[in-house]
Amino acid sequence: MRAYQSLEKTFARLNNLDHLSSIVGWDYAAMMSKKGSGSRAAAMAQLDVMRHEVITDAQLKALLQSAQSETLDHWQQANLREMKRRWEGENLLPAALVEKQAIVHGRCEHAWRSQRPANDWKGFLVNLNEVVALARERADRLSQARGLGRYDSLMDQFEPGTRSTDIDRIFGDLKTWLPTFIASAQKKQASEPVITAQGPFAIEQQRALGLEIMQLLQFDFDGGRLDVSTHPFCGGVPDDVRITTRYREDDFAGSLMGIVHETGHARYEQNRPNDWLAQPVSQARSMGIHESQSLSFEMQIGCNPAFMRLISPLIKKYLGDQAAFAPDNLGKLYTRVKPGFIRVDADELCYPAHIILRYEIERALIEGEIEAAQIPEIWDAKMMQYLGVDTKGNFKDGCMQDIHWTDGMFGYFPSYTLGAMYAAQYFATMRKTKPALDADIEAGQFQFIFDWLKTNIWSMGSQLETDALVTKATGEALNPMHFKAHLQARYL
Amino acid sequence: MRAYQSLEKTFARLNNLDHLSSIVGWDYAAMMSKKGSGSRAAAMAQLDVMRHEVITDAQLKALLQSAQSETLDHWQQANLREMKRRWEGENLLPAALVEKQAIVHGRCEHAWRSQRPANDWKGFLVNLNEVVALARERADRLSQARGLGRYDSLMDQFEPGTRSTDIDRIFGDLKTWLPTFIASAQKKQASEPVITAQGPFAIEQQRALGLEIMQLLQFDFDGGRLDVSTHPFCGGVPDDVRITTRYREDDFAGSLMGIVHETGHARYEQNRPNDWLAQPVSQARSMGIHESQSLSFEMQIGCNPAFMRLISPLIKKYLGDQAAFAPDNLGKLYTRVKPGFIRVDADELCYPAHIILRYEIERALIEGEIEAAQIPEIWDAKMMQYLGVDTKGNFKDGCMQDIHWTDGMFGYFPSYTLGAMYAAQYFATMRKTKPALDADIEAGQFQFIFDWLKTNIWSMGSQLETDALVTKATGEALNPMHFKAHLQARYL
Fold this sequence. Notes:
mainly alpha
């Protein structure tokens, strides 16, 4: 087992560097002063170089090979598999390509920050073409080395083992019923008036409310904290998880449910397998499984009418008594369906439409079936088809709205909707054992739910591959019917 | 100039690692969750290893030698000198000694945290003996390599160029008049009653007051921030300086003047020579010069009656109107002389006595004139002699009160009092040009003072050695008479 042990040491070193990177990354978003960005960028770049040096050490290849024939237990075998995955991720590509991508992505994202508000598609396209060319080169190389399709080889970085044939099947079905479903839900809601809450809502009160709800959801405050950043996220390290939100004085709802969402991510991180925290096998299984936790909290628990009955008194306690804070009305506020331009503002029903559209475009782009210049036209057509929304000429609220492509993150978008589907499937499974789950939620009794998630997901880390994890937990691989059933129960 | 340029690259890399270390170090003290310490310690230890690897690279010795004969300008020459200083600091000692010290210091400090409250001198002594033995070995080795005395070779790490013959002369003089001086000041103050401020003082109000006073003192909030930690400090990086304080609801005074003190450190850091920030020559000159900035702010500006007149309305604005907040009374609060056990709680007059005592003991210890077992007896005698305070048997408030020796930081204590003396000398110099300096302070007009400090100290970094820096700024090397004159003017 000597090769394996030597690998564990190397990956523990890597974990230390990841720790530093997480903490300064969180600091960058939540704490850093305006003038601090220059020296911080240099320090973070150097950290990346050092991480790259560790993972591209020439000895690792042979060690990974030798370890295969050593006697390893279950967890060690899985750890070795995950080591190999990370090693491949950084060793199958020539350094020149990685460096070039870093430069081109940086340039594209930086320019995008001013091109987007200026609605400057033409300017953006120049950089995007470069980004796409390099992404295709990366896809080609990974595809050859790993025997996967081109788009699949990119998606595999975020969703190990998931293939576009799966996504095609899942999204293909969704596409057939989603537009009609959205229309029906809107029609039903048209006769259900909702009362808007009247601000301002003091930020200190919103924060106190958020903290109490995190407590309710059993966030471990000895191992984490809540702060503010422009773009909410969950960062930090497993024993010190840092979630962020942003507050608006005129709207408490977004920040509050944002906190619930990030608390889902956080509890996954806080409960990763304790004995393996320094090793790759302790990592969250995939982006989709991570999102399945935040969406279990936000959509399955948070937007559930039972949860609204639970938190209505808390909202009143911190924000004062208003008719809008009645449980029924809160439920309506959080489930209002309204197709719009912006993905991150989309409701639970429209969100998948945004994802399908992006998936279809980015897949065709990477496979070379379309060119970046064609994106707006296709975008406009699909937005009209899926959501009935006209985005013609409105690039900034259309195909220029997301940061993902500027950074060459092709293959990431499906994770969001996979996450929503996994979450629905978990809760369908839980309800089989415990049909009165909503009574638990209303009573603030989360132990059954959290024990289930901890046993089946959190404590498993990356021990199983995604399909095996989900099958072990729910008795079947991803089955999108549970998501449909969830939406039907909630919206029709 | 090729060797020099290659050195600049290496030291810029080192600066990036220092940046990471500063930020996670600040995070450790100000942000980290309770459970985060284990993985953080591992990550920080790894960072130290990497820094050590960079600075002990085998090529550096030859490069430092070659660069000596290259054509360098003024700043480059000074930078090379400082590079060499840092290189020597980490290359003159065998790795085994450095590692052993890290382990022994960690053990001693850790045990001290419970031994001190338990007043357990005997238990502490076991570890302290080990710490002293290693400190002596370090001193021996540095002494041989650099041709300095043993204690001097340790003090040189904090006060480059300052020797114990200087300290003996300076402290020797101070010792002759300080005890009588303290008695006279106490006698005078006995007939000047002071009104105690009545709390509680809400922490949010204290923080808002502190921020306004930082603004008044021209702290750059685009390049820094104020947070809370158990032990206040100034950390971060020059373009993002992080100062901390701690609040007590029953006492606003300590936290407020603590903020003024740290703001002095911060402005030094925020104004280090901009073109050289990634290089050693941009660093603060010494611990004593750093302390001279915090004490310029705290003692020369902050505790000045003119400053009390300036901030009295601000204190009332945030903490409410009380008789105690009248300028005269505030002045009395902040200059009350009262000998006591604890160095960090000591007033301006008693503080140097605490320092002299520690200096005399640690010097004798390192030179082998006494053993650690003798410390309590000597401590008791000197406390009685200098401050008239009886510490017999009270180890926890006596020789076990400071963290410095647990960590082997012998040679640091003199910096505190050197700082107070430099500060007095700067202000004596400023008053020669501008006798009505107090009128400026009372009016909140700090431009003359800050321009002087920026030109003479902040922007100089480590370009000059300490004596040259002080002589260029004030026309003479350190002259303790200015400190005495300052105290006489304030206390008699």
